[in-house]
Amino acid sequence: xxxxxxxxxxxxxxxSSYGTSNxxxxxxxxxxxxxxxxxxxxxxxxxxxxxxxxxxLSLQNRKNACxxxxxxNRRTAPTLYLSLCSINRQANGQLALxxxxxxxxxxxVMRRFAQDRLFDRMAVEGHLTEPIIEQLGAEIARFHASAxxxxxxxxxxxxxxxxxxxxxxxxxxxxxxxIATVTAIAHSxxxxxxxxxxxxxxxxxxxxxxxxxxxxxxANICLLDGQPTLxxxxxxxxxxACIDVLYDLAFVLMDLQHHGLNRLGARLLSSYINxxxxxxxCKPLAFFLSLxxxxxxxxxxxxxxxxxDPAKRYEKKEKAVQLMHQAxxxxxxxxxxxxxxxxxxxxxxx
Length: 350
Hints:
Helices cover 51% and strands 15% of the residues. It is α+β, with helices and mostly antiparallel strands. α4 crosses α9.
């Protein structure tokens, strides 16, 4: 973070910066953004940081990322993503939203929604229902059907890179993750990728690698105006977002299972298949689910070591370990979601 952005964050943290309203400003911080919640709006600022997959260090890069976020996320949430907003240095030296002076940073302006409408919260609180999940399946199928086909991505080598990245990252946390299990995940993943490679290439040639959401976790889905709504899709990396549609879907399926919601996961998959405009055989699903579980595993392991709160640190460690075993179980054919799916399909014919 640079000194200028520290000034911007302080400015956005003051209620007076938004006009006459004295309503408090709430902040949500992630590794790449700071979101300021005020009145009925959310203002998303890209942090001046760079990681392996993103570079927000320059003002132009942050503006470009904000523009891309608006464009891409309006595919699924047109009423949520409202506008691009500049932060300007006025003649008197003060900062202003959409002011007249030089732009010093940029924001994505969104509608604010209640945080208890996030699907990860709803999952924990038992508020996700089968009708909501079936609606979500239909919405994801609609989104995938209209998404841009991107045949330059989604090749076997890209998936091999994901396997190796997961192995490398998971191996960094031997105090949390069992290295023998981590190695077994990598070995089984390589074996499965080899056996699936021809089918995956056929899917790519058939147009099933598309500009997807890329980060379709429960935390990035909300109930907006009574409708399941995907938001916060990846805008900063084509490599992460231009993927097989089933790999995109796998993240939310894995997340539902991680929350112990196998039946809802099966309902989601069933709804998605029923609304697909192509014949979806789901052959690479277990492989994709394992990749997603492994990726989430090392993210939580990393977060556990950074967390100052011992209780939160323990919680994240436990979740990381669970996801490690979940990743291996998928590769060994242990997937309760499929047995629930079979029951759903059987009941639909009786």
